[in-house]
Design goal:
The complex is a heterodimer of chains A (about 280) and B (about 1150).
Chain A lengths: L1 E2 L1 H11 L6 H10 L5 H23 L2 H17 L5 H9 L3 H16 L6 H9 L7 H13 L5 H24 L4 E3 H7 L7 E9 L2 E9 L5 H19 L2 E5 L3 E2 L10 E4 L6 E2 L9
Parallel strand pairs in A: 1-6, 4-5, 5-7
Antiparallel strand pairs in A: 2-3, 3-4, 3-8
Chain B lengths: L1 H8 L5 H9 L9 H8 L8 H12 L3 E2 L11 H5 L26 H4 L2 H8 L17 H8 L3 H4 L2 H5 L4 H6 L76 H21 L34 H16 L6 H12 L3 E2 L4 H4 L17 H14 L1 H5 L3 H8 L2 H6 L1 H13 L30 H24 L7 H15 L3 H19 L12 H9 L4 H12 L17 H11 L2 H19 L16 H30 L11 H12 L7 H10 L3 H13 L9 H16 L12 H15 L38 H7 L4 H11 L19 H4 L6 H14 L3 H48 L3 H12 L5 H21 L6 H46 L3 H6 L1 H10 L13 H18 L12 H8 L6 H13 L5 H11 L6 H16 L5 H9 L4 H7 L1
Antiparallel strand pairs in B: 1-2
Helix pairs in contact in B: 2-13, 13-16, 14-16, 14-35, 18-20, 18-35, 21-22, 21-23, 22-26, 23-27, 24-37, 27-28, 28-31, 30-31, 30-32, 31-33, 38-39, 38-40, 38-41, 39-41, 40-41, 44-46, 46-48, 47-48
The chains are: A alpha/beta (about 280), B mainly alpha (about 1150).
Chain lengths: ~280, ~1150
């Protein structure tokens, strides 16, 4: 699951042209049988997000919005049950959930006097049944369930996976009899930036001292890792000293270059752990 | 001055007298009248002698092609004497080498009256700080003084100034004349304005050292490396990275000089001193030079060299020279001189009649140089013996030294072999963040959410900046200001509230201490040697290690023994941060914080071991305390350096003020500004409390960053005066009760010597008039409680504080490495002699990792946790040793005693000797010492956890508590076991020895006497029943009588002290008679009579004793017999022996008879 930069690039190259559908994912799996589904999905998702970020702006010009809305109206006019919105998203190479958001916003603008707030839109997307227009509600729903990278459903899944891995990590720590403080306890103590777990007694992993462990239920690619470094990992280091990041779905090997400086990357719970022994300092 | 040397050489004056004369103003009466008279006439010159001597030696050695960088000689006190004096023949570019004591002035100039010449020379109005105004001096003085001009002889500007030889002859330049010799690097004042000049030549300053202004003074002429143009002071920024003067310009300078010289030679009628042949090429530093062999047989003037060496050594010993290590460096340069520049033959041949005067050059050949150097080194052996092992090795292996003084070589070799002190390398600091402490870093301590948020963000920005610096600062072309300046200023801009500043300063200062405190700092104190190294290298800084090793393999070119103050390594980051931040709020808060911390650490009570009861028990506590001292000292030095940096930052400039007026007004302004920290009071306190060894080193750091004006301010001037007085008082050879420890002194001498060479410290300061000194009596006698008398400084600390001492080693190493490197001088490729251990670092050993874990454990815990654990470990470890001593060792001693009993019996029969006996005992008992470790471990294991538990808060999480306990156990065990394994055998030996001698003492007076009294001790040992005489042991009557005789004679003749014989007649002892049948009263009566007879007891005394016996409870019959005896004793007059015999005759039944009568 730890990929070299070259391996990673090869996968990413493959992803450039495929739409974010389950079919694409299956093809990818066939192409790279040695990689786990979760890793591929994570890479897939991240690559797709990068792609969307790059193209986001062109879908948000008022001309584009108008044209999408018109096409939506035309489509549902012909057949309200057909996956008009989903097909439109795939056709213009945009995430179905995001397409649904554009159309929903546009729809609400037309039907309400005040432009809808973000929170209203979010809640409608989370529960499309609240959307006043039944056809649109259906279309939005189709988009959300068919989008494997964006949307409330995916967010929910991601959150659950993240949480699950935190629990997994907690269990492993308990099992290894390593005492820790978790994020909530740390917050209560007044720490401002808090990793998932702070070890009350540091351990050595593969010869490196670590004070904290952060769990990431995703693949560590360059982009996300750098963002994490800047927003989280270095801040932890600044406060608590060196620590360990577990990218459960793997990471690019080359990114594990800050070991000497105190950020260690692993793709699983480490096995090479040395704890402070009894009477450690005795000669 | 020269006159003094002359007198010495003519043996009119003894060296001892001369040194006394130099060192003390008062003439002591012990001197012989002739000497006194000879010297008294020279009295006014006394304080100029040392600068003269130093400069004279440098001058004389100017033709030597040396190793290494120039020997700076900031001994310009001489120049202080120069202004206004008639100079001698021109120096400098014009080249004529001084004839030191020309009996008559052969030159036209000689015809001139001194006054005339003086007048001629004094063109300019008195320069600002002209120290001239000397009274009329003798001719000798005047001429002698010229030799002080050595510095000038290399002054580049000299070449350009009055250049014509004739002029030079007739109107020798006054080197103190600031117009003729404007200060280095300054813009020559247009016309009238002159100002003080520092008569010092430049040395190329390597770039990383360029902190100190390029004008650099540590730079008097290198031997034979003619300094080039003063490095230009182009850089307007006082801290700028001014370009260093390269060797090329030196080369050019030299070339110019050479031409100038030869021109002059051709023109001057009688070159009086050695100068190179016109055509001869002076050695350049580019070619590699093979060293000329040195031969003791070819030394030209032994006696003269010996004398000068003696005087020179005496000056060094008396601390009359500003910098001890500078002189040693100079001497080693002489020792390792490659060769000498050819001089004119005529110069080499001393003219008849002037032999042994100073007429001819002192050093005529390499042989002379080496001879002189070895002479001086012999006198300095004591200091040498304290140098690091590497230096000692190089010295001991130096073939010249061996050749010239096999004896010294032998001593050095012995010192080398006996040297256990290691000098560990300055470790690269590890970057570790200051941990976030919710106790202090919480919202309650901030005025608003915003301020708190800013603070939290700052931490991230600060470390981001730090990380970037770490990554990039070594990249060529990277610039701190360009790379990070704006980010730092943006960050400072956000610190609006005053409290935010203080919070940030706290972080900054903590990080500074964490990163820059050198070895043994925060990390190193806890777990012994190997882990120390690891800690200093950081968690796993292999990369650093590699870089370090590379640096060692090719260390930076040396910058000589007096490098200017610098901010090496991580310190550079903090310096640049302060500069880039350029925030006066930040600076103010930083100064406040640094001052506070300095005060706090300076007054820290450092425990030092109670005077131990002659055994090594307190050694247990010793290592830790020495380490603690080192940590405190290094922290103080770091903090003081930064305080000095920030405090004097606004005043620092590349040059002293250009005019007197300006300077006066600046002085007026500055003198009313209160000092940032009352360092004078702290110094005075430190001296009074005998804590100079702690206070002075940091004060020196602080002062080293002062600006040019500071030393002129009364306040600081008085500090310098104190320091000077202290310096003089630190005579290394003085040793004894109450003296400061040797290495403590050496450290102070090294740092003070270094300070006196700092560019901003005026050169005349050292050779100041003594009258001004008694501001405060400096007393180096240590009191019982002072740190000064405790050996807190070890070699490691000395070298850590004064890395420049290592220059000596580099110099010697470059000699070994054969022909010099590309610069022809100092070699870059140096074989490190002390780095072997680094290669084999146990980087990932379990033990190392465990040590790191223990370190890391404390990182995120409140500081009190660490203090508690360390305290517990320290106490338990110490108690453990005491416990082992009281149990195991005491048991062994008891065993020894019983073994001894046996042995004594055997020995008596076999006639062994007590020394052997001790050996036998020890060899039997010492192996049991191994148990000490096991028992020690058990003790620590048992005692530590409870103590930790009792001292930590109840709420401490279980995991934290148990780890703390384990660490305490480990540390205590380590402490105890380290000591025990090193000392247990010695301890057992010592205790057994004490027991043995106690017993032997109890056995008899002294071994020698004991031998004679063998029969007597035999009687004691096995012939007298000890307790209640069991019948089977009864003595035969004759035996008993003989025994009594023996005892009596023993008491009378052998005991030196009164024997408490009245004890014999105590009821208990007399009662012993009661059980015997028949009771031998006659023997008792005999004894009593004899006691009186021999004068051992008085009649009355015995009567009193017998009287008191009545009071005791006796069996009836016994009481009666006793009464009879008493009467008998009273009744019978003093009887001589024969009559006693009669008594004997009735013996068999005497008791009964008595009883019946």
């Amino acid at each position: 699951m730890i990929l070299t930069k070259a391996q990673y690039d090869e996968i990413a190259q493959c992803l450039v042209s495929v739409p974010p559908t389950r079919q694409s994912l299956r093809k990818l799996k066939q192409r790279f049988p040695s990689q786990s589904q979760a890793t591929l999905l994570s890479i897939f998702s991240q690559e797709y997000q990068k792609h969307i970020k790059r193209t986001h702006a062109k879908h948000h010009t008022s001309e584009a919005i108008e044209s999408y809305y018109q096409r939506y109206l035309d489509g549902v006019g012909k057949n309200g049950a057909a996956p008009v919105l989903l097909e439109l998203a795939n056709e213009v190479d945009y995430a179905p959930s995001l397409m649904a958001r554009i159309i929903l916003e546009r729809f609400l603008q037309e039907h309400k006097e005040t432009p809808p707030s973000k929170s209203v839109i979010n809640s409608l997307l989370r529960d499309p049944s609240q959307i006043p227009d039944g056809v649109l509600a259906n279309q939005v729903y189709q988009c959300i369930v068919n989008d494997c990278c964006y949307g409330p459903l995916v967010d929910c899944i991601k959150h659950a996976i993240g949480h699950e891995h935190e629990i997994l990590l907690r269990d492993l720590l308990l099992e290894k009899n390593l005492s820790f403080l978790d994020e909530d306890q740390l917050r209560a103590k007044g720490y401002d930036k808090t990793p998932d777990f702070i070890l009350q007694v540091p351990i050595a992993v593969e010869g490196h001292i670590i004070h904290w462990i952060e769990s990431k239920a995703s693949f560590g690619d360059e982009c996300s890792h750098h963002a994490y470094l800047h927003d989280q990992f270095w801040s932890y280091w600044n406060r608590f000293g060196p620590g360990l990041v577990i990218y459960w779905y793997g990471f690019i090997q080359e990114l594990d270059c800050n070991r000497e400086r105190g950020i260690l990357l692993k793709a699983c719970f480490p096995t090479d752990i040395v704890t402070l022994c009894h009477g450690a300092a005795a000669p | 001055m020269a006159a003094v040397l002359e007198s010495l050489l003519r043996e009119e004056v003894s060296v001892a007298a001369a040194v006394r004369w130099i060192a003390r103003s008062a003439q002591s009466s012990e001197e012989d009248a002739g000497e006194a008279a000879a010297l008294r006439s020279l009295q006014p010159l006394r304080k100029e002698f040392v600068p003269f001597l130093l400069n004279f030696l440098r001058e004389q050695s100017s033709r030597v092609v040396p190793q290494g960088p120039p020997t700076p000689a900031k001994a310009p006190g001489s120049s202080a004497a120069l202004p206004g004096r008639p100079g001698g023949p021109p120096r400098g570019g014009r080249g004529a080498r001084s004839q030191l004591f020309p009996p008559t002035e052969p030159l036209s100039a000689a015809a001139e009256a001194p006054s005339a010449r003086r007048g001629g020379r004094r063109r300019g109005a008195g320069p600002a700080r002209e120290r001239g105004g000397r009274g009329p001096g003798s001719l000798e003085e005047g001429v002698g003084a010229e030799s002080l001009l050595w510095a000038g002889s290399r002054r580049p500007r000299a070449a350009g100034s009055p250049g014509s030889p004739s002029r030079a002859r007739c109107d020798p330049p006054n080197l103190s004349n600031l117009e003729e010799f404007p200060p280095v690097g300054s813009v020559p004042p247009g016309g009238a304005g002159t100002r003080p000049s520092r008569r010092i030549n430049p040395t190329p300053v390597s770039e990383e050292r360029s902190l100190s202004k390029p004008k650099t003074c540590f730079t008097s002429p290198p031997i034979s490396c003619v300094p080039g143009a003063q490095p230009s002071v182009l850089d307007s920024s006082p801290w700028g990275q001014g370009p260093a003067a390269g060797c090329r310009s030196l080369q050019e300078e030299r070339e110019m000089l050479r031409k100038e010289r030869s021109k002059q030679l051709q023109q001057s009628p009688a070159p009086a001193c050695p100068t190179p042949e016109p055509g001869s090429t002076l050695p350049t530093r580019t070619g590699s030079l093979t060293a000329e062999p040195a031969d003791p047989a070819k030394v030209s003037s032994r006696q003269r060299l010996e004398l000068v060496a003696l005087v020179y050594s005496a000056c060094i010993a008396e601390n009359l020279v500003p910098n001890l290590f500078l002189e040693l460096f100079f001497v080693l340069q002489l020792l390792t001189a490659r060769r000498m520049v050819a001089a004119k033959d005529s110069d080499l041949e001393p003219s008849p009649g002037v032999l042994d005067s100073l007429e001819s050059p002192l050093f005529q050949s390499v042989h002379d140089c080496v001879f002189f150097a070895v002479q001086v080194l012999e006198h300095q052996f004591q200091v040498l013996s304290y140098l690091d092992k590497g230096t000692l090795k190089l010295l001991a292996e130096n073939e010249r030294l061996l050749c010239f003084s096999p004896a010294l070589q032998g001593r050095l070799r012995a010192a080398y072999e006996g040297s256990v002190a290691k000098v560990s390398l300055a470790m690269p600091p590890s970057v570790q963040a200051v941990s976030f402490q919710p106790e202090t870093d919480n919202r309650a301590n901030f005025s608003s959410d915003r301020a708190f948020h800013t603070f939290k963000k700052q931490r991230d920005v600060f470390y981001e900046v730090l990380r970037e610096w770490e990554d990039r600062h070594e990249e060529p072309g990277w610039d701190f200001e360009k790379g990070l300046g704006s980010r730092i200023r943006a960050m400072m801009g956000q610190l609006s509230a005053a409290c935010s500043h203080s919070h940030f300063v706290r972080l900054f200062q903590k990080q500074l201490l964490q990163m820059c405190q050198s070895p043994g700092g925060a990390g190193g104190t806890i777990l012994g040697e190997a882990p120390d190294v690891l800690n200093m290298l950081g968690a796993d800084k292999l990369g650093r290690l590699r870089r370090l090793q590379e640096r060692l393999a090719a260390p930076q070119s040396s910058c000589g023994p007096c490098p200017p103050p610098s901010f090496p390594g991580c310190q550079g980051f903090f310096r640049d941060f302060i500069l880039s931040a350029s925030s006066f709020q930040f600076n103010q808060h930083l100064m406040d914080s640094l001052s506070l911390k300095i005060r706090e650490l300076n007054s820290l009570v450092l425990p030092h071991p109670e005077p131990s009861d002659e055994d090594g028990e307190s050694d247990v506590d010793w290592q830790g305390e020495r380490r603690q001292f080192a940590v405190v000292l290094l922290s103080l030095r770091l903090l003081a350096k930064f305080l000095g940096f920030v405090a004097f930052l606004p005043y620092r400039g590349p040059e002293p003020p250009p005019t007197r007026e300006l300077q006066d007004s600046i002085l007026a302004l500055r003198s009313q500004v209160p000092p940032v920290l009352d360092v004078r009071a702290l110094l005075q306190q430190g001296l009074r409390a005998h804590r100079a060894v702690l206070t002075v080193p940091w004060l020196v750091e602080f002062l080293s960053l002062a600006d040019h004006i500071v030393p002129m301010l009364d306040y600081y001037r008085s500090i310098f005066t104190l320091l000077l007085h202290l310096h003089r008082s630190l005579v290394l050879s003085k040793d004894g009760e109450g003296e400061m420890c040797f290495l403590n002194k050496l450290l102070l001498l090294a740092v003070l010597g270094w300070l006196f060479q700092i560019p901003t410290v005026p050169e005349d300061l050292f050779f100041v008039e003594e009258g001004q000194v008694d501001v405060f009596e400096v007393d180096t006698k240590t009191s019982e409680h002072g740190l000064d008398g405790v050996p807190v400084v070890d070699q490691h600390l000395l070298y850590t504080c004064c890395p420049y001492i290592g220059e000596l080693r580099k110099l010697l190493a470059s000699w070994v490495s054969g022909s010099s490197g590309r610069s022809g001088g100092f070699v870059r490729k140096i074989t490190p002699t002390t780095t072997t251990s680094l290669g084999a670092l146990p980087l990932r050993t379990t033990q190392g990792l465990q040590a790191q874990l223990a370190q890391a454990f404390f990182h995120n815990q409140p500081p009190s946790l660490r203090r508690t654990v360390e305290f517990v470990a320290e106490r338990i470890g110490s108690n453990c040793v005491k416990h082992i001593k009281a149990t195991l060792v005491a048991d062994l001693v008891r065993q020894a005693e019983s073994l001894l009993q046996e042995q004594l019996v055997t020995q008596r029969q076999e006639g062994g000797d007590p020394g052997q006996l001790l050996e036998i005992l020890c060899s039997q008992l010492c192996p049991h010492g191994a148990q000490a470790l096991t028992q020690g471990r058990e003790f620590c294991q048992k005692k530590s956890p409870g103590a930790v538990q009792a001292l930590l808060p109840e709420e401490t999480p279980a995991a934290v508590l148990s780890s703390a306990e384990n660490i305490a156990v480990g540390l205590a065990t380590e402490k105890a076991c380290t000591w025990l394994s090193a000392n247990i055998t010695a301890l057992i030996r010592r205790e057994v020895k004490a027991a043995v001698s106690r017993m032997l003492r109890a056995q008899g007076p002294e071994p020698a006497v004991r031998e004679d009294r063998r029969g007597c001790s035999r009687a004691f040992a096995d012939q007298i029943p000890v307790l209640g005489p069991p019948t089977q042991h009864r003595l035969e009557r004759g035996q008993a009588r003989r025994l009594l005789h023996m005892l009596l004679s023993l008491w009378k003749d052998d005991f030196q002290v009164p024997v408490p014989l009245q004890l014999l007649l105590r009821p208990r002892n007399v009662g012993l008679l009661a059980d015997t049948r028949p009771r031998e009263w006659d023997l008792l009566l005999f004894l009593l009579r004899e006691l009186v007879e021999k004068g051992l007891m008085g009649q009355k005394e015995i009567e009193a004793c017998l009287d008191s016996l009545h009071e005791a409870q006796w069996p009836e019959d016994f009481a009666e017999e006793l009464a009879t005896l008493f009467n008998l004793f009273l009744a019978e007059p003093q009887v001589p022996e024969p009559q006693l015999r009669a008594c004997e005759l009735v013996q068999p039944n005497r008791g009964t008879v008595l009883a019946q009568s």
